[in-house]
Amino acid sequence: MIKRATSSTARSTSRQTILAHAVAHAIAALLASLPAYAQQQEITRSYRVAPGPLTSVLKQFGSDAGIMLSFSNELTQGLQSPGINGTRTAAEGLAQGLAGSGLVAVRQEDGSFIVQKAAAGSSRADAPLPLVTVHGAAETATSHVNGYAAKRTATATKTDTPIEEIPQSISVVTSDQITTTGARTLQDALGYTAGVSAEQGSYGVMTSESFFIRGFEVQPYSGGILRDGMKYQPNVYNGAQEVYGLEHVEVLKGASSILYGTAAPGGLINAITKRPTAESLREINVEYGNHNRKQISGDISGPLDDAGELTYRLTALERKADSFADFGKNDRTYLAAALTWSPSAATSLTLLSSYQHSKTTDNGPLPRQGTLLFNPNGQLPGDRYLGEPSFNLFDNTQKTVSSIFEHAFSDTLKFRQSLRYFTSSLDYKYYQITGVGTDLRTVSRRGRAFLDSTEAVTADTNLEYSFDTGPVAHKVLLGVDYLTQRHTSDRANTTFTDIDMYNPVYGQPFGSATDTDKWRLKQSGTGLYLQDQLKIADKWVLLVGGRQDWTRLEDRDLLNNPDGIVQTDKAFSGRAGLVYLANNGLSPYVSFSQSFAPEEGFDRLRNAFKPTRGEQYEVGLRYQTPDKKLLLSAAIYQLTQSNVQTPDPVDPDNFSVQTGEVRSRGVELEAKGALTKNLNISAAYSLISAETTKSNNPAEIGATFVGVPRSTVSLWMDYRFSIFGLPNLRAGAGVRYIGGRPGNASGLPDQPAYALVDAMVAYERDRWRYAINATNLANRLYVPSPCFGRSCTYGQPRTIVASASYRF
To answer: What pLDDT is recorded for position 199?
Structure first.
């Protein structure tokens, strides 16, 4: 019997709680002590805006500076700008960009700027002049991105930072790319991202989200899936996210515990929710596709009052569809409501809520013989289902409520706090293959049923302070985050009769359920983090930081181990990176980062396992075109995970020790954005060498990671036919190549390489957009994930969806 935590463990946990509360009270005291007349010193930033038409220069500068900049196109038409370069405040940058134009930028009370003609004999930029009517909004880390190339991110630093200043590989998939490529799932959305491959497993792509990033599995249980910068679902059974509700998806690659705590070494995925917009946005979409897919969705946003202090957004979707497997379904209802209150330019409060009900089915596994391996009876068709139609259900309901509060006490001091409550319930029934007869036709199987319930609360509070020390500009971030998760799961098995996989007969009686597990899992974690972004002489960006985490896990199986396991861990994670900002748009960087993940269980001497540790060394290079519409990136990395379990030399059959080590080395290339005014591209290449470097089992040393392709290549391009006199017509095509994946010495077979072709054609006229999207156009039959046990799972076959959208 496993004993509960000792009194010393309880005392340690108490000290950790006291420390966390002390830090929180210290932050609150600091905020309370700030005078109302806090300094109003402006933030300086380094800018590189090339000379050109004044209209273009102003738009780019407004986006880079993160300010609201308003001007009339008639006022700037035909004028040229000398560009904006160097470290400057927003007002100084505008003055440089407007030099010689006869125009000035007028600062408003809310911190925004308006471009006007200069008064005769005056060059003042603060004279009160009337407002103009044409406005432009700046791109931020969470706002809509026009095109495929995002300029800013908050995932890598928790601060709104230009991507070129991040010394770590990060990929952003924008909502424009999601719409154009016709992505229907998070796996689809990340299909053209370097270093990422989706794992479908036995769950099916519609019911779960699990990925390989740089060779390591990333999924909700490992803490690798975030929503709006906070940990999201506690486990893989909480259902897949609806991509129509996302503004963009960001992938931070490599060890990244510095800001988010528990995480797999490969990296993390952060989905950004659609938020209210200052300008009116209204659209309604209808879709129809194969597999009897019928869907309607809508997105409405804009101001609620004349002053623009209150803005809202409503996003909704209703889908009725079948799945590609026989007797399957893929139905969903999604509703999201958001409200932002901005009483001033310094303060904002955003409330986010969502409801998602998915009533789908599990596509089910098929035997290796007949899918991946040869079967003399023939290849199994892609839509074959070997369970019982009356015992197939994935009925999941998710609900979330979030708040995101920001307040700038001055141009140098900002406060942020994010909170979220997440709940999920699940009724899940599916089948498992337990054996294949000698005739290679008869399949033994059983039913499996889950009743799951999940709750999670996450909170993140931080202060951002900007100051200068000589030629060095600092942006310091101090924060504390906390999460608590509860997951209950009652599981049972049901006996099924055998079935002929080539001539299945359904509706056969099955036995009563036998309880196998009643799990009660509680997790909590507290983290303190400190980070400094140092910009030196406008050319170098040094990023350093550290984090201390305390975690607690209580895992009970009421049937088999009611006393359960109580395990506490603590870990420190660090990161350091350096970027050089060259005048020609190149940004080389080098970095070191760490991660950790608690490891449940005990060794032979009843010592609790230590957390696994990840360490990454990375060298990279980015190039951003002067108009910032195309981003090219390259990275070379080495990623090592230690404290990996390996058989105990004394009792290898029953116990493990943590002397194992695995390593992933690789190269990544990526291009995103506009090659020309009419041609967009999203291209990626990855080469991964992932293997076991230390193990007590000699057969494992040098063995490559199971299911990880050595190479992946993807290319998507879409073109608008403007030069042919057809500016309303747009077409695109893409190919995704996934290289062969190795098996193992235990009998898991190798998996062959495969390539998938996607295509799109769209026509836009006035407020309408008509499109046809096809994925896996050649209807390739393929196995995307490792064939563990006795079974494999087919990937998504050809899917064609026609859509019509109306914006008003």
So the answer is: 67
Take residue 679 and report the two structure tokens written for it: 């041609």
> What residue ranges in 175-220 does DSSP mark as E strands?
196-198, 211-213, 216-218
Q: How many domains does the chain have?
A: 3
pLDDT band for position 38 (cuts 50, 70, 90): very low
Separation in Å, CA 501 to CA 392, 448, 626: 17, 19, 59
- pLDDT value at residue 152: 94
Domain of 300, CATH number, reads 2.40.170.20
Number of H-type helices and E-type strands within the chain: 7, 43
Same domain, 560 and 698: yes
Report DSSP letters for 240-294, one per residue. Answer: ---GGGEEEEEEEES--HHHH-S--TTEEEEEEEP---SS-EEEEEEEEETTTEE
d(CA 153, CA 657): 40
Q: 664 and 549, same structural domain?
A: yes
Q: What's the pLDDT at 207?
A: 75
Tens of pLDDT, residues 513-556: 999 999 999 999 999 999 999 999 989 999 999 999 999 999 99
Element (H, E) at 71: none
Of 273, 289, 311, the residue at which a domain comes to its end is: 273
- pTM for the predicted model, two decimal places: 0.84
- Give the Cα separation of 429 and 308 in Å (integer): 48
CATH number at residue 115: 3.55.50.30
pLDDT of residue 132: 37
The mean per-residue pLDDT over the stretch 617-643 comes to 96
**669, 169 Cβ separation under 8 angstroms:** no
Are 137 and 234 in contact by the 8 Å Cβ rule? The answer is no
Residues in the chain: 808
- How high is the pLDDT of residue 27? 37
Amino acid at position 43, single letter: I
714 and 690 in one domain? yes
Which residue, 776, 767, 766, is CA-closest to 800? 776
Claim to verify: residue 215 and residue 67 sit in the same structural domain? no
Q: Which two tokens stand for residue 633?
A: 């990136």
Residue 504 belongs to a domain: yes
Give the C-alpha separation, 220 to 205, whole Å: 15
Integer Cα distance of 444 and 455 in angstroms: 36
Structural domain boundaries, residue 402: 281-807
- Helix 54-65 with 90-97: angle, nearest 10 deg: 170
CB atoms within 10 A of CB 778: 11
Instruction: Give the Å distances, CA to CA, from 267 to 21, 57, 216.
Output: 29, 35, 8
Same domain, 235 and 315: no
- As a whole number of angstroms, the distance between CA 322 and CA 291 comes to 5
Q: What is the pLDDT of residues 463-499, one digit of tens each?
A: 999 999 999 999 999 999 999 999 999 999 999 999 9
